Here is the input.
Amino acid sequence: MPPVRRWSVTLGIGAALGACGIVAFSLSQQAINDRVAEGQVVSAEVTRVWSIPVQRIDPPQRVRVRYVVDRHTYSADLVAALASSSYETGDTIELYVDRTNPRRVATSDKLASEGLPLLVPPALIFYSFFTVVLVFSAALRWH
Here is the structure.
């Protein structure tokens, strides 16, 4: 007799995590869109570029920028939930700065200063997809 209860629990957990990932991804992207729409536009210099070591074909790029707002110099590490434009050290880019917190910035191609938490929603969605594939492949082996 196949372990249907175990499969059901695994599918339920995977579906719940996937749903949480989709909601979190939507909310984070909306927050970035709002910052781009309403933020103060400043120029920033790219001071460092590196990839986040994850096992993906196109790993997310982290970009460290330096920018000035109201005569104060800030530095931020930007990351995108999905692959974005490619930058090089020394590039000048356009940043959108949150008017209430100048440490919160974003670019029009979805890089943002929220950092690694932006990577959690896609990871949850991937885990959900992986869980469904795993359970269905296990179920097919029983037949």
